[in-house]
Design a protein that fits this description.
Elements: H1 7-18, E1 29-32, E2 44-47, E3 53-55, E4 60-62, H2 64-72, H3 76-84, E5 105-106, H4 109-116, H5 120-125, E6 129-131, E7 134-137, E8 153-154, E9 157-158
Antiparallel strand pairs: 1-2, 2-3, 3-4, 5-9, 6-7, 7-8
Helix pairs in contact: 2-3
């Protein structure tokens, strides 16, 4: 999968994670101390155009997503959402659908508001609504236009 991250977002991401401004050379690479180990020299190279990185002390390398996953221990979907500025939803983990006639409770905006200790109207103001599959969470782009429907998430069944 090839996901394009704009250069301005690449720079902002790495500067926030490394907590220092980065200065690129003519080829678009910048040097920094590696956050993965005790590094006394700037042995981490970062390409501020495409987001690739290489730790010359350990000979590890990767893209911007592997950097975030290695640094924070998150999965790819979370890293992608953080880097691209997409909303993430940290609803309680989805449980398997009830079996053998067991009762289950459908996730609702009301239950989410209670679980997250947020006002119900606050969540509704973002367009969250109940649907037969669970809670519909609309995603919006930076210009506040709706994102494509494939990005919309629905909460699964909540335990009884």
């Amino acid at each position: 999968m090839n996901i394009c991250v704009p250069p301005h977002r690449v720079r902002a991401f790495y500067e926030s994670r490394l907590r220092s401004p980065l200065r690129a050379n003519a080829d678009g690479w910048a040097g920094a101390k590696s956050p993965f180990r005790q590094d006394h020299n700037a042995s981490l190279s970062i390409n501020l155009t495409h987001g690739g990185w290489r730790d010359h002390g350990t000979d590890e390398s990767g893209d911007i997503f592997t950097f975030e996953m290695k640094l924070t221990g998150c999965d790819f979907a979370t890293a992608k959402a953080r880097i691209l500025g997409e909303p993430t939803c940290d609803l309680p983990a989805a449980k398997a659908a009830p079996q053998n006639g067991q009762a289950g409770t459908r996730a609702t905006v009301e239950a989410l508001a209670q679980a997250k200790k947020l006002p119900l109207e606050f969540l509704r103001s973002f367009g969250l609504k109940n649907q037969s599959q669970g809670v519909f969470i609309p995603y919006r782009l930076a210009d506040n236009s709706p994102a494509c429907p494939r990005r919309c998430k629905r909460a699964a069944l909540l335990p009884v």
